[in-house]
Design brief:
It is a multi-pass membrane protein. This is Taste receptor type 2. It is built from 10 helices and no strands. By secondary structure, it is mainly alpha-helical. About 0% of the residues have low confidence.
Length: about 325
């Protein structure tokens, strides 16, 4: 079934890659433009730029691997080239997961105040070294993936539809390492992200309850500038957890049932990075307004498409007790 649809998966991944690269490149270039104007980056912008760069490189390497595999049916290309590209893909996936977790952690620290002084000190220390952290994460991803060359088997013994250069954990050390890799790249950032989601949700519930009590229920409470950030953070968490469950299932099928489903991994992470980029653009109000404006300007060149224009309305927000620098 998978082999019959590999070409369709390749085409779908290509379309998603183009979309994801467009949105992430837009975020990257707009952030660079803002940096040239302001001569500084906020912590959130640093993390978002690092995440966008990792997404772009991941799509380029990932789709190049899929294209080589699709064209090289006889596996004539040197196996080492496939292996090294897969190593880069897995390390970039590690980077994407942890950058997303780091971004969610950042927003949780800005939205939620904790009475635990020790925990607050740890948060402050981490946020003081954001730039260092976004450089350390890719290095950790690469070092975490290097043991694959030693413990994963280079021959593809999947049941059907063999791909060239797929690393299979068919030995006992290989299976142990795969569990460790999934714990470090998927499960651990998933737990941290879930914790941040719970903290933000509790903060939102408490804030709404206090505002409702202060107005005696006279009108619906509003969060103002916090609302967009909270929506973005919670959306990132939901998307992350959905991808986490899918990715763990696909890895289970590959390692336990020996199904050749690695192209599904590439497809799902393409969907994940595309949706994440769109959520990030929405969350950054300046990016969202600029994107809508540029989109409408492009449609102005063709009168017949004017019905597709999106209205650029200025929303009036009520003053919130605390503002988040987004």
């Amino acid at each position: 079934m998978l082999g019959a649809n590999k070409v369709a998966i390749w085409v779908m991944t290509g379309l998603l890659s183009v979309t994801s690269v467009f949105f992430n490149l837009y975020i990257f270039l707009m952030s660079l433009r803002n940096y040239r104007e302001k001569k500084q980056w906020s912590a959130s912008e640093t993390i978002i730029v690092a995440l966008s760069a990792a997404d772009i490189f991941h799509h380029v390497v990932c789709y190049f691997w899929m294209t080589m595999d699709e064209m090289d049916k006889g596996c004539h290309i040197v196996h080492l080239q496939y292996t090294l590209m897969l190593l880069v893909v897995f390390s970039l996936k590690f980077t994407i997961m942890w950058d997303t977790t780091f971004l969610t952690f950042y927003y949780s620290t800005k939205l939620v105040s904790t009475p635990n002084h020790c925990y607050t000190q740890i948060q402050t220390t981490i946020l003081k070294h954001v730039t260092l952290a976004v450089f350390v994460i890719p290095l950790c991803g690469l070092s975490t993936c290097m043991p694959m060359l030693a413990v994963f088997h280079e021959d593809n013994y999947t049941q059907v539809n063999q791909d060239c250069g797929v690393l299979i954990p068919d030995t006992y050390p290989g299976k142990i390492y795969e569990v460790i890799y999934l714990l470090l790249s998927d499960v651990l950032p998933g737990l941290i992200t879930t914790k941040c989601c719970v903290s933000i949700s509790i903060h939102l519930a408490n804030h709404l309850r206090h505002m409702k009590a202060s107005t005696n229920g006279a009108h619906c409470p509003k969060l103002g500038t916090q609302l967009r950030v909270i929506r973005m953070a919670l959306s990132l968490v939901v998307i992350f957890l959905i991808f986490l469950m899918v990715d763990l299932y696909v890895n289970y099928q590959i390692s336990v049932n020996h199904e050749n489903a690695i192209v599904l991994t590439f497809l799902f992470i393409s969907i994940y990075t595309t949706v994440t980029a769109m959520v990030l653009i929405y969350g950054k109000k300046t990016l969202w307004k600029t994107l809508l404006h540029d989109y409408n300007v492009c449609l102005d060149g063709c009168a017949c498409l004017s019905f597709l224009k999106v209205p650029e309305q200025k929303t009036k927000h009520s003053i919130a007790p605390a503002k988040v620098k987004n």
